[in-house]
Design a protein that fits this description.
mainly alpha, Hypothetical protein af1432, 3 domains, two-stranded antiparallel ribbon, rod-shaped, transmembrane, HDIG domain-containing protein, membrane
Length: 715
Amino acid sequence: MGKTKRRRATPEKKKWNGRTVPILLYIALFIFCTLAAMVNSVPERHEFAAGKLCEETVTAPRDIVDEAATQRLQQEAMQKVQPVYARNEDIWGEVETGLETAFSQLEAVRTAAKNTYIQYASLAGDADINAQKVNWQTVLTGVNMTKLLELAPSYITEEEIYTIAALSQDKMISLREALIERVRTQMERGITDDDVEELAETVRSGLVSGGLFTAAQAQLAETLVVNIVKGNLVYDIEATEAAKQAAAENIVPVEYKKGQNIVRQGEIISEEQYALIKQLGLTSDQTSMLPRWTVGILLMGLTFGAAFLYAGVADRSLLDSAKTATSVCLLTAAGVVLALICKRIDIRFNLVFLPAILGAVFLRRRTALAFGVFNSIIISFIMAPVSEFVFDGQVLRMLLSSILGTAAGILVLRKKQHRGEYVLAGTVAGFASAVVYLCYAIMEAASVQKCLMAMGFGMAGGLVSGLLSVGVLPILESVFSLATPSKLLELSSPGNPLLKRLMIEAPGTYHHSIMTANLAEAAADAVGGDALLARVASYYHDIGKLASPVMFKENQMHIGNPHDELDPKESAGIIISHVKNGVALADRYKLPQRMRDIIAQHHGDSLAGYFYYKAKQNGEAEEADFRYPGPKPQTKEAGIVMLADVVEAAIRANGTKGLENVREQIDKLIKAKFEDGQLDDCPLNRRDLKRIAAAFLYIFEGANHERIIYPEDEE
């Protein structure tokens, strides 16, 4: 019978079935994170009312400005602001003209009164009259008084007509000059309309106290001032409002720090205290949380959607591997829990770097960076103050420090071979975070103490994250069977119990594994795979042969071949079983899962050809009985170990008859595995296979280099 042609068996349904668990895990994580953000955004609410007894002490859950108290102080400051007036220089001219006109009218009244008296007393027109001695109440009656009132300003009374009539011309002039001078002096200083009555009283009292004028004459002057003078200081609305606004802005806001008591238990709640409690959203009659929750769900969904898009385009292992998905979800959930704890300490004390550092252990660097950004956004939602949810400036500040710190920490974490590297990564992340906080503090003109405190919180978050990662890493390695660089280095030690057994009980297999490891490491490095994983997995890929070392050719030293006495099918079963035995031994020794997978996949479902064709010579043989159980290699590293294993074994068996012969053997063996479909399920393309072949050839060339032949010592 000819060789059976095997087709690739990777239907779309199988792929989606393999993604069911990761997708369900991510959905559960989305629900958990969303609920955490929503619950965290709901403040504690109690029954409060102004004027009632407070049943429990209320403290500020965050820094907050007491708007009611601040507004009260601002109103008080605005009320204390004096009106601002602008001087109108034209007013004095109007007042002076009015006074001159009034005195002209008064002079006309005085003259008319004199003429009336002359007629009354039948005196000559040029008679010299002592006006002060005339009984003007007798003279100026009836029609005479009416005529004089018509000559006088409208506000002049009959009593004031008598006073005017009693004035001499000189006295009238003196009164005019004294009055105008006093009014001019005051208006040069500036007066308002409200000051006019006060000015009139001042003028009256001044004239009387001077002794030159009678009380009636001074009263006449007061009447003129009240009716003619007006303020030359005009109320400036804009300037006054600006002064009030400046006074309000100078008021220092009444601020409550986080943890400060607003009202103590047993106190009566004031209106201002109740307003602040309501401002914090702590009352039971607050508005609905639906808008805030809607925004939270949408933003969380957008973040997870971007993460799914990245997983589908850049790193499908996030969707294809249930173990990777589980690790990612647990680290994210742990980060959320830590965020809730840290929030009670200080929003700047942030352990967001811990999930990112631990994620970098088993994720590719690019994916680890994306994972760090994802965690930074999620944790920013969680850390948001309940009053602002996402858009608070403090949260945006924390988001920036988290992203930059995470990027710096992951970029520093390169080889990941020593625990100290994780502490260094955390320290660098904390330093980057501290610099961000320092920049914000400087922009806000914060005090030196506040700057140092902000930097301290940033550094502390990074350093604690690094230290915790060292402590948590062994737990993750054990629980999730992670092939971390430090774990792989530990397993690569010749003192490892399993390698010791291999070295002693199956020395041929041990040396084969060492050479296979050299080939696999070089090949993995050439195609961008995990070179350390490929090397260490190669050390252990044939540990299943420890069940019966002598049944394998490389260990049959100084003894015959036991398979000569066995049926080909039985021999094939023994050979094939070393894969199953290897997986069992790997489980027993708790090797990382990725190494167990490579042990299980390093032969794929290939054919044990030697025994199959031997069985066919003896009669009919079922090909299925002579094939390894699989699965085929699923990763680059598993495919590389398969190729390194078969190439090393074949070339060791056939010998290295020149470099060109080795190249031909390598190409032939790789081509055979490719055509048999063994590499169908792993991400190795034709270009990768060429690079792998070149890497293999380079290793064999180095292993079989020429040596100088030293002459024997002469006797």
